[in-house]
Automatic annotation (TrEMBL):
Its cofactor is Ca(2+). The lineage of its organism: Eukaryota, Fungi, Dikarya, Basidiomycota, Agaricomycotina. Binds 2 calcium ions per subunit. Residues 1-19 form the signal peptide. One of its GO terms (molecular function) is arylesterase activity. Gene3D superfamilies: TolB, C-terminal domain (2.120.10.30). InterPro entries: 6-blade_b-propeller_TolB-like (IPR011042), Arylesterase (IPR002640), Serum_paraoxonase/arylesterase (IPR051288). SUPFAM superfamilies: Calcium-dependent phosphotriesterase. It comes from Neolentinus lepideus HHB14362 ss-1. This is Paraoxonase 2.
Length: 397
């Protein structure tokens, strides 16, 4: 049965289809079609291999979309999952076939990697009932409790998106659920950035959700659109969760990072990263827009210089094509990946620091650098053998 929302939109959809067929450009301009020059997202397409020659792919975990490093303990935390399962249910990639995904695969994984010992451990998840389908993560450190952190994890559960907040004692092998945060403002979550023990920013990377699959298909097939994604600020410290939109809209808001009083957001459509100043009330003021030359995904910080490390898709994002090749990613089917350092001392000027043809990690969605141990850790949202650790020379970091 059609929903009232879908019925009320039918005349608009009909007009839109006719306009697309007969007068597409004026229609697109009127409804907010993003004007993206292909050259602005393919600057790094023909790059040569860089800093990928000493990488070890780790097969203890698969499909690691995001990683955050706790530098004081030399520990990387990774959000990983099931590549095959994600070809059926993974809402951020417009995969809505929950019935086609094996029931046991709806429980995905968090891992830690001890950088000094080179050991990977799956973290036991305590207190969370039901699904855990991972995406972006972040960690929050407690200034007065150096052995305790909170891990914030995007969760694409069948019942709707949430941010699952876990408590973790460094050195232990488990995480304990503190709060599973749900709110209508968390509907297409992609990245998460912790601003306190129980408050955070997120990006919603699309406008329509899994419950509006037909409209979401139109959004994807005919986009990109200027109005599809945004940043929300959520506060879960009280009994009532509050979320509100604190940015204007983007074609493709994706990874995000808090550093000091600034929030950085990568756009996976327009090939920019935007810098926001965080106000006392957590509203945002856009202070700079950085032209990356490629579509952006996750963002991390290099603590010694406070430079940013942005993972980019050097030939654009073609996710729908990659999903059909999950068993071959990194093998017979290779998707190049790159990471850019944004030099803070030069106004965030982009510099290529990593490039691989996809032999290490295909469809790379994250990279993080630990300058104290001279390693780069990267991961990919759909690859079996979900993350790699690359040794770097000291001049790189």
């Amino acid at each position: 049965m059609s929903s009232p929302k879908t019925n009320s939109l039918f005349p608009l959809i009909l007009v839109a289809v006719l306009a697309i067929l007969y007068r597409p450009r004026p229609f697109y301009n009127a409804v907010g079609k993003a004007q993206i020059d292909r050259a602005s997202i393919t600057r790094w397409t023909n790059s040569s291999a860089l800093n990928n020659e000493r990488c070890v792919v780790h097969r203890e975990a698969d499909a690691c979309e995001d990683v955050k490093i706790h530098f004081a303990s030399s520990t990387a935390f990774l959000a990983c999952g099931d590549p095959e399962g994600r070809t059926h249910w993974y809402p951020s990639s417009a995969r809505y076939d929950a019935a086609g995904r094996k029931e046991e695969s709806f429980r995905e994984h968090l891992f830690k990697y001890d950088i000094k010992r080179k050991e990977t451990t799956e973290l036991k998840i305590v207190g969370l009932e039901g699904d855990l389908i991972t995406h972006g993560i972040d960690i929050y450190t407690f200034p007065n409790e150096p052995t305790k952190i909170h891990i914030f994890a995007v969760n694409h559960a069948r019942g709707g998106d949430s941010i699952s907040i876990f408590s973790h004692v460094l050195g232990s092998d488990s995480v304990v659920l503190v709060k599973d945060v749900k709110h209508p403002g968390i509907y297409n979550a992609n990245g998460v950035a912790a601003s306190g023990p129980l408050d955070f920013f997120i990006t919603n990377d699309h406008y329509f959700t899994a419950k509006e699959a037909f409209l979401r298909k139109l959004e994807d097939d005919y986009g990109s659109w200027t109005w599809t994604s945004n940043v929300q600020y959520c506060d879960a410290t009280g009994t009532i969760v509050t979320c509100r939109q604190v940015s204007d809209t983007f074609p493709g808001a994706n990874g995000l990072l808090i550093a000091g009083d600034e929030l950085y957001v990568g756009d996976c459509r327009s090939g920019v990263a935007r810098v926001f100043e965080i106000q006392p009330d957590r509203s945002l003021i856009n202070t700079a827009t950085i032209q990356l030359g490629a579509a952006a995904d996750n963002i991390n910080i290099i603590p010694t210089t406070r430079d940013l490390l942005v993972t980019v898709f050097p030939r654009g994002e073609r996710r729908s094509g990659y999903i059909h090749h999950v068993h071959e990613l990194g093998k017979g089917f290779k998707v190049p990946g790159a990471a850019l350092r944004l030099d803070r001392s030069e106004g965030f000027k982009p510099e290529l620091v990593y490039y691989d043809d996809g032999s290490v990690i295909s469809y790379m969605t994250v990279a993080a650098i630990d300058p104290y141990n001279n390693v780069l850790i990267n991961g990919g949202v759909f690859q079996y053998g979900g993350f790699a650790v690359c040794d770097l020379t000291k001049d790189v970091v």
